[in-house]
Design a protein that fits this description.
Helix content: under 10%
Radius of gyration: 25 Å
Number of strands: 29
Distance between the termini: 92 Å
Shape: elongated
Number of helices: 2
Strand content: over 45%
Largest sheet: 29 strands, parallel
């Protein structure tokens, strides 16, 4: 009997040692792979070892999970987490602690196009209650060398990102590129209002992306929907400060670019430079179409509704052109709140093709400044409006609208 027990113990000991190398193991804690988590030691190599172990496992008893534990701060250099992974269930990254970038730009190693990159992955889940901190303040004074994004999600399908805080990126906080079937939820993204180019979420060449129930306060667009994006749904986003939720910019350097089937609902803009924005460069081609903004709350937004087909990104040497990205089939419905500027609505469209089929309904924008006039500026736009304050002169209506300039 004693020999049998000894043999059984030896068997379980050997089996247990196999689990430590990923044979059937489902949890991979970065501390077990050499990470220190003191905020000063470079833990990049340990993270990659843990990632490779979790990605290569073919466990059948659950989703392999890479764990970044709580109450630790992990310093990472620019790091790429690549697929594809072996598990049919995909892979989970559970971030409970804090991940920080090198604070000084001179300390960054290798390519600085992006900091943390997840590539070529299916069924990836990134979640937790932790924090991703780009420590970008020293980058902001030299915007020509900023990394393009802190978290880059490239060629991912069936992706879920939720629960995390994303703070002080050198440039864009999150980039979703060439991905499909993406759900982003319950994020807290923040950077100072004067931090340059710190977009919250950038989307490009992606489809069926759902972003909901998040707060975004940055120095640039809360969400930017760029070329090649379609079927994007944005719901329950509290945006501010920042530059609003933007379609574009599109058509830079006379390029052909497209965006379509965009839905933005139940969002708020608090102290933002813009609210619902569409921006295209002169000389570009393509289209931005089938776009809806509805159930929007405004709190002292500078330009609550704006289409700018003369977008120039602050430069003054943009070439004039009669060609433009076509903007059409845009609906604004149920906007309520205040504008901090006189120009509450701006449709600054080109002569050809202009902005077509603009529909406005139940718009009630008043001034956030006592006794300040507000109005709509309108050039080369056509469509209809009803129950809209302020009235839009180049759109058609059959209603008689009474508007008090001093609200």
């Amino acid at each position: 009997m004693r020999n049998i027990l000894v043999n059984l113990l030896m068997f379980y000991s050997i089996a247990s040692s196999n689990f430590s190398f990923g044979h059937g193991q489902t949890t991979f804690n970065v501390l077990d792979y050499g990470a220190v988590g003191d905020g000063d030691t470079d833990d990049s190599e340990a993270f990659l070892k843990a990632w490779n172990a979790s990605c290569s496992t073919n466990a059948s008893n659950g989703t392999p999970t890479l764990v970044i534990p709580a109450e630790r701060t992990f310093l990472l250099q620019p790091t790429i987490f690549s697929g594809s992974c072996n598990s049919n269930d995909g892979i989970r990254v559970e971030i409970l602690g804090k991940i920080v970038a090198p604070k000084n730009p001179d300390e960054w190693k290798g390519c600085v196009e992006s900091w943390l990159s997840f590539r070529n992955l299916s069924n990836l889940i990134i979640n937790g209650t932790g924090e991703i901190n780009g420590q970008g303040s020293l980058w902001w004074s030299n915007i020509t060398t900023q990394p393009n994004k802190a978290l880059h999600l490239f060629k991912c399908s069936n992706l879920q990102l939720s629960g995390l805080a994303h703070i002080d990126s050198p440039k864009a906080h999150i980039s979703i590129n060439r991905s499909n079937n993406v759900t982003v939820s319950n994020l807290h993204i923040r950077a100072p209002e004067d931090s340059p180019n710190t977009d919250g979420i950038d989307i490009s060449v992606s489809t069926h992306v759902n972003i909901h129930d998040s707060t975004i306060a940055t120095g640039d667009d809360c969400i930017a929907i760029n070329n090649g994006s379609s079927f994007i749904n944005i719901t329950n986003i509290a945006c501010g400060p920042g530059h609003g939720i933007s379609v574009g910019s599109l058509g830079v350097n006379e390029s052909y670019q497209t965006v379509e089937e965009i839905q933005v609902r139940n969002c708020s803009f608090n102290g933002t430079q813009n609210g619902a924005r569409i921006k295209t460069w002169q000389g570009g081609s393509g289209y931005a179409r089938k776009i809806t903004f509805e159930h929007i709350t405004l709190i002292a937004a500078k330009h609550p509704i704006i289409i700018d087909q003369h977008y120039c990104n602050g430069k003054h040497d943009c070439k004039k052109s009669t060609q433009a990205v076509e903007v059409s089939d845009v609906t604004y419905s149920d906007f309520q709140g205040t504008s901090s500027s006189e120009e509450a609505i701006v449709f600054n469209c080109t002569e050809t093709p202009g902005c077509t089929n603009i529909i406005m309904n139940q718009i009630n924008i008043t001034s956030a400044v006592a006794y300040q006039n507000i109005y709509a500026f309108c050039d080369n736009a056509n469509g209809t409006y009803s129950t809209t304050v302020p009235p839009v002169p180049c759109l058609k209506t059959n209603e008689t609208i009474s508007f008090n300039l001093y609200t």
